[in-house]
Design a protein that fits this description.
By secondary structure, the chain is α/β, with parallel strands linked by helices. It has 17 helices and 14 strands.
Length: 451
Amino acid sequence: MRKIKKLFPFALIACISFNALTFGSCGENGSENVLRVASWDEYICEGGEDSYVGGDSRPLYEEFETWYEATYGKKITVEYIPLQDNETMYNKIKMGDSYDILCPSEYMCMKLAEEGYLQELPESFFDKTNENNYYANYVSSYIDGVFKDEAMNLSNGTSLSKYVAGYMWGSTGFVFNPETVDRNDVKSWKVFLNEKYNRKISAKDNVRDSYFAGLGMYHEDFLLGEKAKYEAGTLSKADYKHELFTKMNDTTSISSVQKLLEKMRGNLYGLETDEGKLDIITGRFDISYQWSGDAVYTLDMGEDEEMRDEPLYLEYCIPESASNLWFDGWVLMKDSKNVDAATAFINFLSIPENVVRNMYYIGYTSCIGGDEVFAYLEETYGADEEETDVVPYDLSYFFGEGHTLTTYPDQIHRQLFAQYPDKDTIDRLVVMQYFDKETNTLANRMWNNIK
């Protein structure tokens, strides 16, 4: 899971702790009237004045209790349990803690499924004729296609789509100050090695994101060549995507990647997990490697008058050769006694108006499409009708044909692009697979040597 800090489109909002929401012990789940939901801090709308609807609105997990009883005639109590990160979640499960549904990141979804901790979502969950199956009816065809891609199949050949319902998704790239950084430089992973930005760039303090960046540097020239062939029509899309997937999931080149990361480490301002969003605003450095949701937050902060006397208009860039496609998704624990309530919870969060509330509150991009979500984008990023300096931004890959947003030219490099990269960029995004035990040991050893 990406380190979440709540985004606000228009004002600076104080962080809210979920610690008080952890009820009872984390032992065996013995009640069919209690739905235990494990997710992340600030990863669901908490309601109140800071929410999209404002006023005295309640947290969505509390509103679900009312909706569930009204829809299905049954009472349910939700225990929303915030966890620190994917590894904490995994360790708690290994120690015997029990939940009904979880919201891990892509690699942890795969790991838990491979190790037998999950059950498949019921076939009834995907029945589009059921009007309460909001996920099946509104999930973006793009996201659905990612989950059903054969490259995402488990080792037994089962499609990942049978286990995961997407929640949020995004990319990784560089937030940078265009006044001090050449945009062409941040189109390359090798900007990490560019002495022009010595002590002016930060990277993530975790092995997976940094190893992915190292692979980007190591395979960049080859992948740019493959991209040129694809664009020229001499390489099929399937073969191009295969090369992207293979090279950006390469686990045979750890020693070569380590050498590049060691060079990178010497050029960095530092490694960070969360503080980079503030540090680039205050000018401590000029380039920050970030997850797209945090990128939007950072770009918004730069414009906020409470943060700076003069607005700072940062931009977001995704490397030309390849980058990471990440997602967080809902999965159903194997021992859950609350399958009906668990799938209803996922569907409740997939109701378009609730999708908008979550996107507004946390700032990340939902896996759900639909006209109501597109209307929210028009409200947030659309140009005023009287404006003439505008550009069309085609979002048909995500929302379907006919969904083109009229926006301002700067949004091609800013928040809208960070939330919904254009189609050409989407073609070069790759999901990073989970490491097996041996690779994980080697990668962690490498990273400890670098740090």
